[in-house]
Design brief:
Zinc_finger, Double Stranded RNA Binding Domain, three-stranded antiparallel β-sheet, zinc-finger, 5 helices, 157 residues, zinc, Znf_C2H2_sf, C2H2-type domain-containing protein, single chain, two-stranded antiparallel ribbon
Length: 157
């Protein structure tokens, strides 16, 4: 498909617009229209030399490639427990062996501590294990029960 087939140049009083004949979106320059047309055609001319992933825009490829290079240039820090690692492989092994044990079975969110995962699970199950002995209201978290007691029963002052 030739890009010029989808090009329509319009003249207005103050400036020229380039319009996409597929979705009628307008652009100030032909290069912006050409870049836009790749969305319709699926043409991805920019390829990553490390993993062969393709992109419609060069800036997206550059951003993607910076992730590859950062694996070698930066200290690796676990986003769950903030432990430092010398390389990406050590970080990956750490996450697989440690944090997968503490992953939520419903949404795969990982936690540094099992207790935090268990507290998180209540969001999915709706379980409310903490009961107010004054009025019988139930809460999923003990800290919410304490706030309730202070606010409504003046307990804990």
């Amino acid at each position: 498909m030739v890009l010029n087939d989808n090009l329509e140049k319009r003249s207005d009083q103050t400036y020229s617009l380039y319009s996409c004949k597929i979705c009628f979106k307008s652009f100030m320059s032909k290069s912006n229209l050409d870049r836009h047309l790749r969305l319709h055609t699926g043409f991805k001319p920019y390829h990553c030399s490390k993993c062969n992933k393709s992109f419609t825009r060069k800036d997206h490829l550059t951003s993607h490639q910076s992730n590859h290079f950062s694996n070698f240039e930066k200290t690796k820090i676990c986003s769950v427990c903030f432990q430092n690692f010398l390389n990406f492989q050590e970080l990956e092994n750490h996450c697989i062996s440690f944090h997968k044990r503490n992953a939520c079975m419903h949404c795969n969110k990982t936690f540094a501590q099992r207790a935090n995962r268990d507290r998180h699970l209540c969001l999915h199950t709706g379980a409310k294990h903490h009961r107010c002995h004054e009025c019988g209201e139930r809460f999923a978290r003990s800290d919410k029960l304490k706030i309730h007691k202070r606010k409504f029963h003046q307990v804990g002052f």
